[in-house]
UniProtKB/TrEMBL annotation, chains A, B:
This is Aspartate--tRNA ligase. Residues 140-552 form the Aminoacyl-transfer RNA synthetases class-II family profile domain. Residues 197-200 are annotated as: Aspartate. ATP binds at residues 219-221, 228, 479, 531-534. It catalyses: tRNA(Asp) + L-aspartate + ATP = L-aspartyl-tRNA(Asp) + AMP + diphosphate. Its EC number is 6.1.1.12. Pfam families: GAD, tRNA-synt_2, tRNA_anti-codon. GO terms for cellular component: cytoplasm. It comes from the Bacteria. The gene is aspS. Homodimer. One of its GO terms (molecular function) is ATP binding. CDD domains: AspRS_core (cd00777), EcAspRS_like_N (cd04317). It is found in: Cytoplasm. It comes from Duncaniella freteri.
């Protein structure tokens, strides 16, 4: 037996026991005639004491231990003279009797501490050492715990986890499919699923009633900051349900996770906001509702005073930054620079301050009287000491810019605490998106999304106004997941295809397989999918999903540790009956 | 709301309640002025009654329902006149008040019954309909339940489920790797993992201590009867453990599954058998121990009587088929034909009968006296009415043949009840296998398998006799899983590579990445992997893994339902910078 206890479990009540621990040398230090060795494993750190007086040879061995060596120590648990209240094992130490080196270690390329001296690239290359850091390992422990609780909740609600295939078929829409040549079927390829959407709908046709899966999905796309070519979804689908049933069920899931993983009880129902309101009040379909600072529209108050910027603007919107009237010129210029950055793209920013004495100052006081400006601040319910920030321009673009400004102000004002969680359903998404370039409608989610039953009469007459039975779960400004009720009636589906400009042949070619299955008694059904990596990162309070993935890939889709992807042998290519066709 | 209850839950105590059910039409029949409709969902079947007298129009609608239509029915629960004791809902029926057709169905291509009229190919093509059959769905419910209980057990033992990557690197040994061209890294390929072996060992280096994962693995090989190109493993690894620790832990897992899924309590420890004994007694490293019929070796008793078949044989082995002395000439000929089939390859079979009166008959009585034959039957402890079957030849081959004969006799005698479970650890596998062709040793498992500590002194002097610290879990003659303690010491690993004829460069090229990681403090570790598909199929009492997989592939690796793999667009090939290179 290698150990009687882990390095995290001994307490004062164990004093006097002889124990054996095994783990990694975190650090060693000599003090007087004693050598202290901190031994570490997944469960904690325990201090070992080697006394030179008691056993000089043993102590000498301890002095020769290196960082990250793997050792086994037998000794007696004793109360510490100087206790460490920050360590669960901080009241005890082990007086060593035996020491065995199980394995040596070369000096690691960075320190194995929460605050490491290793840069990103080095940590990724030596990810197996990075994973020894308790903060990184903690993220993966959280991930395990969350996956476990998700399964516990869904199992208790009668959901069956069904594994859908990874080797599937490339779809005509599958521009970003990873493909896999088949040795047994030369010239033919499998594709890796971007989601199990088709299969989960088939399982509903099969009468599985409640399906879920925590499942890897794949997308071969240019990786933006926080995307991975392989990612994990919590994929769910239910039969014989309305939107309300789905929202209830998965609100329950999210609450279960917060309760059993984070010990946070959400007693009230999650707020629900229409997509239209989200865009109007926050300029985003995933508003961060940890703080208010909703948009205020001023267009009707700003016109006709000869200030062309506001006169010509389709939209004038403002937010109120509470207590920021004291912002200096420099601070205001910083904010102006922020909104003028190319990725945000505003032309400029206006402001109105209500000083502590109630007087008003503004960047546009040349054009507006104090009385006129007060109509603006009144509408926004801005008070003494508040700062009103105003953007103007084309509606959709300006809302987006104001959204960024709002988030920036939220961050500056410390209103976006990563340990505070604000959950929200966004509902009533539009069913269609109009594309100016191709002059036609596209499905905002996918072409199987059911229209809101109340809007069915608008399908032909006011297509763009039709709302979808689609919903997103938003937490702290992140889209945690989303889904929809699906169309299960053939006639309605045909109507949708027509509105999307798909001929019968097109529809058959693109979606025929699923449509054929639907001919054999498809039940009403709907569901949703959560991004599991994102879900974990939010609960971990992290901005990036990378550190909640054990072995992530970098922005070029490379695994720096194993150095993949890589070239393969000609013989392998030959067997697959393909060859390279590299462009210059 | 689509339903108040499922089709499986109403009982006599619900009589008088108004309920709404939704599901599929299993069958309709008219009797007198009434129409009976069986409505089905995942949870069961409920009988609906439409009374023509009460509502002729409603009853007429019911008469026009087709098989597998999706309907919603509201009505009152009533006690049945003629109860059906075979159905949990068999005491009640619903007196219908309302009927709504939620969806129609074309006539399905086969009947949705346990005993269906659909052939294999048809069922696979319409797998979404096949999955409606309760027997098939039951397998997947079992699979869900098992996965859930596996996680529950391992979580309770401190194992962390960690997702390892699916897009990894092709290894030099990876002749059967599926590869995935990378669009972002032209000319380079990922590979899909045949197992997460490297990653789980890295997680041990990372100090994760106890890891598991229920994970898809991939192998692009010619598919024998019961293999799938994608399959699921329960992959596990532990640090600071001996073989005994691993066996205890995973014996506990298997017992937990039997207990919580099949309600079978295994109180005794699972038997353990050395590989050598398994080969000697059963001719197999995965003996079916649901029945005895162990091999008896007769070589020392059979020589020198002028019967060259036995005189020249390296090995003479027998099994005793109890109570089969009455076998006719024809039955014996059938058995002889069985062992002579090319896939078994015996030259012939000999037999000795002990008749009920104690007299002995034998196919070799020309060469042996009754007294001589009686020394054979005595050794085999054969009694009156028993039949002894004898094969002879080269040891390894003959044992294999005798193994097949034993299994055949077990089946004929009804000793292989799929609902009886016999679990066994096979231990002490040889570390090396000698290959005559290349005249060198190969690792029987993989080159990281640790030698049995007691045999370390034999590594150079008697290499072939060295036992591995490797073990298999065998259930009913199936290898359910296996694993080993891994080598964690660099010196021993180098020694192994040398014995396997790998130069330092070879070893570095093939395994360098893992070996480098091992330089940074690898703990002693070991683990195992279970084949999850097989595990489920055994508990389901099925021979094949295909029906415990929701969407399996056929023997050509094809998904008949979605028709994958398939050709892809030239534009896709072009973007991946590869082209086809089809052989004639």
């Amino acid at each position: 037996m290698y150990r009687t206890n882990t390095c995290g479990e001994l307490r004062l009540s164990d004093a006097g026991r002889e124990v054996t621990l095994a783990g990694w040398v975190q650090r060693t230090r000599k003090m007087g005639g004693m050598t202290f060795v901190d031994i570490r494993d997944r469960y904690g750190i325990t201090q070992i004491v080697f006394e030179s007086d008691a056993d000089a040879a043993l102590c000498d061995n301890a002095n020769h231990l290196g960082r990250e060596w793997v050792i086994q120590v037998t000794g007696t648990v004793a109360e510490r003279t100087s206790k460490n209240p920050n360590l669960p094992t901080g009241e005890i130490e082990i007086i060593a009797k035996e020491l065995k080196v199980l394995n040596r270690s070369e000096v690691p390329p960075f320190t194995i501490e929460d605050e490491t001296d290793g840069g990103d690239d080095l940590r990724m290359k030596y990810r197996y050492l990075d994973l020894r850091r308790s903060c990184v390992r903690g993220n993966l422990e959280l991930r395990h715990r969350m996956a476990f609780e998700i399964r516990r909740y869904l199992d208790s609600k009668g959901f069956l986890e069904v594994e859908t295939p990874v080797l599937i078929k490339s779809t005509p829409e599958g521009a970003r499919d990873f493909v896999v040549p088949s040795r047994m079927n030369p010239g033919q390829f499998y594709a890796l699923p971007q989601s199990p959407q088709t299969f989960k709908q088939l399982l509903m046709v099969s009468g599985f009633d409640r399906y879920f899966q925590i499942v890897k999905c794949f997308r071969d796309e240019d990786l933006r900051a926080d995307r991975q070519p392989e990612f994990t979804q919590i994929d769910c689908e239910m039969s014989f349900v309305t939107q309300e049933d789905v929202l209830q069920m998965f609100e329950g899931l999210v609450k279960h996770i917060f309760k059993y993983v984070k010990d946070i009880d959400f007693t009230d129902p999650f707020p629900r906001m229409t997509w239209a309101d989200a865009m109007r009040l926050y300029g985003s379909d995933k508003p961060d509702t940890r703080f208010g600072m909703e948009f205020v529209e001023l267009k009707d108050l700003t016109g006709g005073k000869g200030f062309s910027v506001l006169d010509d603007a389709e939209y004038v919107g403002a937010i109120v930054a509470p207590g920021c009237a004291g912002y200096t010129r420099k601070q205001l210029d910083q904010l102006t620079d922020f909104v003028k950055r190319p990725q945000i793209g505003a032309k400029g920013m206006m402001w109105v301050k209500i000083e502590e004495d109630g007087s008003i100052k503004s960047s546009v006081s040349k054009f507006y009287t104090e009385e006129e400006l007060r109509t603006w601040t009144d509408r926004a319910a801005a008070g003494k000491g508040d700062l009103m920030l105003i953007l103007a321009g084309q509606t959709a673009k300006t809302r987006k810019q104001l959204c960024e400004l709002r988030l920036e102000m939220g961050s500056r004002l410390g209103l976006r605490d990563p340990q505070k969680f604000s959950c929200l359903w966004v509902i009533d998404f539009p069913l269609f998106e109009w594309d100016d370039e191709t002059q036609r409608y596209y499905a905002m989610h996918h072409p199987f999304t059911s229209p809101n039953p109340d809007d069915l009469h608008l399908l032909d007459s006011d297509t763009g106004a039709v709302r979808a039975t689609a919903y997103d779960m938003v937490v702290n400004g992140n889209e945690l997941g989303g889904g929809s009720i699906r169309i299960h009636e053939a006639e309605l589906q045909d109507h949708m295809f027509r509105l999307l400009g798909l001929s019968e042949e097109d529809a058959q070619y693109k979606f025929g397989f699923l449509m054929n299955a639907f001919k054999y008694g498809a039940p009403p059904h709907g569901g949703l999918a959560f991004g599991f990596d994102r879900f974990v990162s939010i609960l971990a309070g992290l901005d990036s999903i990378r550190d909640v993935i054990a072995f992530p890939k970098n922005n070029s889709g490379r695994d720096m540790m194993i150095d993949a992807p890589a070239s393969i042998d000609d013989s392998q290519l030959d067997e697959l009956q393909i060859k390279l066709n590299l462009k210059e």
